[in-house]
């Protein structure tokens, strides 16, 4: 019966077309503190549930509509208390969370400890099919609500207990001293009762506790967000609202920005990078984002999993002229990598420029020598597998291969191996049939050095696609996670990163920048470490 | 006539089933797993992927999935998108109105301007005027539509400022003018050439001489006798062109930010959204079938010698 209703709607829509709709589409353009920022957007793939959104377009909205216990400082990336009054722990395993008083959702409901605990239980439960469920994996009882197979045996995480209107306790299944710093991620946002009681309505018009409220949402076309007058936080918006306008791709959005129909484009198309400065008279941002691109290796392939192969990998790393590629192909929107994290972490957060050392410096002669000492490239030829449908990977893979071929003096040493679609690319990685390196990109979930290491290189970790394993690395990670002192924990993480370097578990290529262009109508535009515009700071003239 | 139409309508059923089965199996055969791709480069949870596939019926064998799809379709259910969980009917009801508007606009433009050019050139075949128009149409045929699109955008939006470079979400008629002209220009060239040849040929035919000898007024000779008979090849072309305009506007829609059918098919193909692709293609197949039936019926109207039993 549900279906029949849809068919009716299709028929109506087709009929409506025939009636001309000449109504004007131009939105009223006003300036000042009530001015509305018109920003480019892509329709989010997933429903806008906080624990189900893992891509940047949906993330933009959640960043405006929600505030969690912590918020990452848009400039420094440091996790700062937002709704959390305090998060205490004595042993890095048991945490007591106190929620600030005076916060409400925009529909008037108070934000309490229960708002958080219910939301987290919802996100973790396997029945709700939430993509970010794994964020709750460190909480005790996760294996009961989200078993690897079969039905869940519990509805709620046993590690979460509401102890008062504004307090709750969290028990982790392992020691994790920097766990509170992960709480700035959208998946940990509180949810109002309306989310559970009127789910479909909520999805059509999400209600949260952030500085903006959703005024209007037309799927596939536009979302209008307006400043919430009752917002109690310190980061009150400096504008009247944001209109997120859906574009078919970043080229059409850029066209509209140049034509003056749009104020902000947060993804400048690669083909326009050479014109962007003159087109926008300098209203262009190019700042580091928490994304690193690497080449990962298949360690399930015996020939790659030998001590000699480590020499070959280091040699390959030295054969790649990173600077030339980032300058010419990426026009400086990437920065050559010298460690396995990202500059957005800052030195305090664990970023250590030059940790890779000589292994990341271009040195063709040394590279050739190292690869020969390691017994040459396994299987005789290097095929770099990548997906050809997004992100213009072909250009840089070919350039990397060129660089390696030149260093080795062999035109056929390295070739690119394109795979048609991203879905198929992930499939091949999952089936473990690759015999050579493959493109790997990592966008951080939260600005912690732990997030750049553990999910990627820990034995059997969730995103350890190449199945790399090293007991020394695992031991250092466990040690760092258990360390209550952040400073010494970070030093231990960096020692673990040293293991990654010595074995060249993955070849770091470059750090990716976020880029944005804006019109002369707006000012104070910046990107946060997740390369999402800091909307609340934007001023409209 | 009625029997003919009924027979044609019945013939549509096997064509419809055959084409949906074909598209459905092609989508099924594509490599890659759309559910797995949702997670991007992040963690894969096999249990969750299995659960999602089960909910969407993607774990069933091909014949069973197709059966479910067809049963749903006959109840008016076009299926559900994998990523967004939205009913495909919603996507279709958003995209089709925009594309229908764009197509009608382009089609009208093609018919009016194309036939006018064709008649204008064909009445005085092999003169300078005719040659000039032939060169113009040759130019339109040889220049790819994206070149025309970007040129149009550059001159009319950025240099002259007459139109907006992009189409907004509402896709109003005035915004669709430039994309429609670009989209229609290729067909326009074909229509002009077909009309011109047909007119030039028929001018020399016996019935024209008879009509002139009877002393009929010139307007009636050209408007009724000549035009009607010359329109048969043009109508044949226009009939199939209607379907091509609807489904094949991927490039033009991309340049002008039109969120229509072409864009949605392309997007769904990239994300391997099987139900969306099959749903939209099915509707385009129906458009093709209906328009070719209309063309065949128009033959009888245009040429009194053609009769359908």
UniProtKB/TrEMBL annotation, chain B:
Localization per Swiss-Prot or TrEMBL: Cell membrane
ABC transmembrane type-1 domain: residues covered = 96-299
Q: Which PROSITE patterns match?
A: ABC_TM1
A Pfam family cross-referenced in the UniProt record is: BPD_transp_1_N
Chief location category? membrane
- By its UniProt entry, which Gene3D superfamilies does this protein fall under? MetI-like
Bilayer-crossing residues are: 12-30, 102-121, 133-156, 176-195, 234-256, 276-302
Q: How does it sit in the membrane?
A: Multi-pass membrane protein
- Judging by the UniProt lineage, the source's domain of life is Bacteria
Q: Which GO terms describe its biological process?
A: transmembrane transport
Keyword annotations of the record: Cell membrane, Membrane, Transmembrane, Transmembrane helix, Transport
What cellular-component terms does GO give this entry? Answer: plasma membrane
Question: What family classification does the UniProt entry report for this protein?
Answer: Belongs to the binding-protein-dependent transport system permease family.
- Read off the PANTHER family from this record: DIPEPTIDE TRANSPORT SYSTEM PERMEASE PROTEIN DPPB-RELATED, DIPEPTIDE-TRANSPORT INTEGRAL MEMBRANE PROTEIN ABC TRANSPORTER DPPB-RELATED
Tell me the protein's name: ABC transporter permease
**Organism annotation:** Streptomyces scopuliridis RB72
């Amino acid at each position: 019966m549900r279906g029949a209703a849809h068919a009716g709607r299709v028929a109506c829509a087709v009929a409506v077309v025939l009636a001309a709709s000449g109504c004007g589409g131009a939105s009223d353009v006003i300036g000042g503190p009530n001015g509305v920022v018109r920003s480019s957007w892509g329709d989010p793939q997933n429903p806008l549930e906080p624990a189900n959104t893992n891509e940047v377009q949906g993330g933009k909205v959640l960043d405006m509509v929600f505030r969690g216990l912590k918020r990452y400082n848009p400039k420094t990336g440091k996790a700062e208390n937002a709704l959390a009054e305090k998060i205490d722990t004595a042993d890095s395993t048991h945490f007591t969370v106190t929620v600030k008083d005076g916060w409400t959702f925009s529909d008037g409901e108070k934000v309490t400890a229960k708002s958080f605990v219910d939301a987290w239980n919802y996100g973790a439960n396997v029945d709700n099919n939430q993509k970010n469920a794994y964020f709750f994996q460190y909480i005790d009882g996760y294996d009961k609500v989200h078993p690897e197979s079969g039905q869940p045996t519990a509805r709620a995480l046993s590690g979460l207990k509401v102890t008062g209107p504004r307090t709750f306790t969290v028990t982790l299944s392992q020691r994790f001293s920097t766990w509170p710093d992960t709480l700035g991620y959208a998946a940990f946002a509180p949810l109002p009762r309306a989310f559970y009681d009127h789910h479909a309505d909520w999805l059509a018009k999400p209600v949260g506790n952030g500085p903006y409220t959703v005024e209007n949402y037309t799927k596939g076309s536009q979302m209008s967000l307006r400043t919430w007058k009752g917002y109690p936080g310190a980061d009150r918006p400096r504008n009247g609202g944001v209109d997120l306008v859906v574009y078919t791709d970043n080229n059409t959005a850029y066209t509209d920005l140049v034509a003056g129909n749009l104020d902000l484009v947060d993804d400048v198309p690669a083909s326009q990078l050479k014109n962007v400065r003159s087109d926008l008279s300098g209203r262009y941002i190019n700042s580091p984002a928490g994304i690193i691109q690497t080449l990962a290796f298949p360690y399930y392939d015996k020939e790659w999993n030998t001590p000699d192969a480590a020499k070959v990998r280091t040699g390959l790393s030295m054969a790649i002229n990173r600077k030339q590629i980032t300058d010419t192909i990426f026009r400086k929107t990437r920065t050559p990598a010298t460690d396995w994290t990202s500059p957005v972490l800052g030195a305090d957060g664990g970023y250590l420029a030059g940790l890779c050392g000589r292994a990341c410096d271009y040195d063709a002669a040394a590279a050739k020598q190292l690869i020969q000492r390691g017994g040459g490239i396994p299987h005789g030829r290097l095929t770099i597998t990548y997906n050809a449908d997004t992100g213009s990977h072909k250009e840089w893979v070919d350039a990397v291969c060129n660089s390696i071929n030149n260093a080795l003096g062999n035109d056929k040493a390295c070739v690119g191996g394109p795979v048609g679609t991203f879905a198929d690319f992930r499939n091949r990685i999952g089936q473990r049939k690759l015999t050579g390196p493959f493109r790997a990109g990592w966008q951080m979930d939260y600005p912690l050095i732990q997030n750049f290491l553990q999910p990627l290189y820990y034995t059997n970790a969730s995103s350890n696609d190449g199945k790399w394993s090293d007991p020394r690395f695992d031991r250092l990670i466990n040690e760092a996670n258990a360390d209550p002192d952040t400073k010494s924990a970070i030093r231990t993480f960096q020692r673990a990163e040293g293991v990654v370097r010595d074995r060249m578990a993955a070849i770091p290529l470059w750090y990716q920048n976020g880029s944005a262009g804006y019109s002369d109508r707006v000012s104070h535009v910046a990107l946060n470490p997740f390369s999402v515009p800091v909307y609340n700071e934007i001023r409209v003239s | 006539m009625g029997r003919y139409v009924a027979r044609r309508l019945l013939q549509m059923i096997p064509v419809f089933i055959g084409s949906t089965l074909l598209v459905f199996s092609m989508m099924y055969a594509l490599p890659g797993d759309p559910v797995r791709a949702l997670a991007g480069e992040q963690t894969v949870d096999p249990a969750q992927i299995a659960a999602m596939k089960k909910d969407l019926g993607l774990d069933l064998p091909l014949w069973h999935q197709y059966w479910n799809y067809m049963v749903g379709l006959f109840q008016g259910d076009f299926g559900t998108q994998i990523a967004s969980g939205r009913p495909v009917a919603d996507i279709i009801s958003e995209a089709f109105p925009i594309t229908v508007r764009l197509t009608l606009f382009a089609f009208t433009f093609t018919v009016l301007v194309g036939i006018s050019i064709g008649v204008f050139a064909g009445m005085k075949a092999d003169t300078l005027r005719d040659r000039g128009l032939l060169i113009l149409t040759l130019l339109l045929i040889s220049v790819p539509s994206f070149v025309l699109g970007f040129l149009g955008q550059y001159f009319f939006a950025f240099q002259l400022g007459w139109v907006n470079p992009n189409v907004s979400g509402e896709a109003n008629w005035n915004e669709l003018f430039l994309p429609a002209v670009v989209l229609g220009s290729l067909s326009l060239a074909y229509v002009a050439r077909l009309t011109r040849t047909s007119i030039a040929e028929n001018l020399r035919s016996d019935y024209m001489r008879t009509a002139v000898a009877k002393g009929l007024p010139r307007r009636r000779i050209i408007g009724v006798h000549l035009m009607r008979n010359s329109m048969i090849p043009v109508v044949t072309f226009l009939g199939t062109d209607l379907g091509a305009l609807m489904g094949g506007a991927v490039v033009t829609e991309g340049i002008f930010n039109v969120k229509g059918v072409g864009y949605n098919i392309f997007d769904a193909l990239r994300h391997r959204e099987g139900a969306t692709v099959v749903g939209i293609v099915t509707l385009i197949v129906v458009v093709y079938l209906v328009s070719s039936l209309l063309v065949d019926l128009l033959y009888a109207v245009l040429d009194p010698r053609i009769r359908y039993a």
